[in-house]
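Hi there, hope your week has been kind to you so far. No rush at all, and the record is pasted right below.
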Amino acid sequence: MTKTTRRRFLQTSAAATAGAFSFHYVSARVLGKEGDQAPSSKLNIGKIGCGGMGGGDLGGVAGENIVALCDVDANILAGAAKKFPNAKTYKDWREMYDKEKLDAVVISTPDHTHAPPTAHAIRKGWHVRVQKPMVHTVEEARVILKLAKDNPKVVTQMGNQGNAGDGIRMTKEWIDAGAIGKVKEVHCWTDRPIWPQGMNRPDKTDPVPAHLDWDLWIGPAPMRPYVNGAYHPFKWRGWWDFGCGAIGDMAVHNMDPAFFALGLGYPASIEADAEGATAEAGPNKARITFEFPATDKHGPIKVVWFEKQKPPRPAALEEGKEWKAEGGNGILFFGDKGTILCGGWAGTPRLLPEAAMKDFKRPDPSIPRVKGGSYQEFIRACKGEGPEPGSNFKYACPFTETLLLGNAAVRAGKKLLWDGPNMKFTNDSDANKFLSKPYRKGWEL
């Protein structure tokens, strides 16, 4: 963005972003153009990215009309086409957008290529489900949020499936009911990364496989040589140019209950203690602390993210009981009257010590449950048959933005003070370069 455009954009978007974590339901609206399909008919869906998680996403919406498939890898595309032989195939989503008339797109590509097809789909009036983390930079989060707000008939959803589960709703209901009193601190953790991180760029070049369009795979990122086994498939996540590391992969799941239940806004500061990070790639191990100021809903709250390490053993856990840290992924809420432990991916909550569960009177459910999981939540909303998804972009953009501030703190190597309304760090102007990125020509938002 130019300075003038960026200033005008911030002025119009900051108010919309503040407080966007507050949880609420709003009825979805069907696309209103004449000639659009009836709400009860099947959606015409275009799928971008068909390998890895893309295959799972295809299965999640397979009951609808899959009319177009797009992947830069011809082998992956051919595999998907066998399952959906009536779908047209593309290797460039931009061509698909020019030629197809769709109701919705489902995007499952590397992180650096999430925002451009998402932005252009919203402008076309197509519903969008995009895999987590929904954007690659903080500035992208602001742009996509504004587009979502400017196009309220477009149904949006980030693919953090646990947000549609019962566990995250139970956690919020318990906290709202005062089960652990006022929450003071939250610990979230993951056993990731399970892919390479902490490395420098390979000093070599290999021939690009015939089945892969490397230029399209690079997309908006700066061009670099292809290297066998370094980026595609899957190993892209640890590189700053392509992925968001462990916090982008798993905090979107494991930290979701904190944002969902507590209505967190902008953090005041972010500080990282990381090991092994380089200018090219994320750390091998990290602890990132977010400090959230008091609001009219809660007092100051500290949220600590642990990756590739367990959080400290909670004092409320029974003496002699092994601290397994929920198999490597989970979240702990520490209140002034008790502790809640949830498994990973926004799992089912329980009180600590576990003996406290015996006398605990669970509050009656007050948040509507989602039937059939997140894919059906998205499909019903697109057809006007249910509320908008809980992880809609008005929720998911600010949430993802906060997580990406953690990566900025890792890269800056110091505690950063955050001015959310003006989208800048106030104590290190040089760190602001981590909030945005340049785009190669033809790949702009």
